[in-house]
Amino acid sequence: MDGKAICPECELRALQSQMTKERVEALAAKMAYTEGVSATEAVYRKRIDICTACPALVSGMMCSHCGSYVAFRARIAGAVCPYPGENRWNAV
Q: Which end of the chain is more exposed for a tag (fewer CB within 10 A), N or C?
């Protein structure tokens, strides 16, 4: 290292620039299932279908309402849809 301080914002931007829809989905697929913590595969698929049809989805991978990668958020059992005024995942 050359002694220069690493700018956290620059580092985060560099990491985010490497994220593609395919990479996010591949990383989310590797997440281990933990009963009570992880959503089942069926619930995950339904949530992803809802997000895919949502106008708040950015670049096919990020929610514009909360800034999360939907593939990660949808894997969490207790997660809710952040769409203002409604939880679109409620029926799942």
A: N
Check whether 42 has a pLDDT greater than 70. yes
- Model pLDDT, residue 86: 85
Count Cβ atoms within 10 A of the Cβ of residue 92 and give its class: 0-12 exposed, 13-18 middle, 19 or more buried. middle
Q: Shortest CA distance to 61 belongs to which of 32, 13, 28?
A: 28
Burial of 65 (0-12, 13-18, 19+ CB in 10 A): middle
Q: If you average pLDDT over every residue of the chain, what do you get?
A: 89
**83 alpha carbon, distance to own chain's centre:** 14
pTM for the whole thing?
0.79
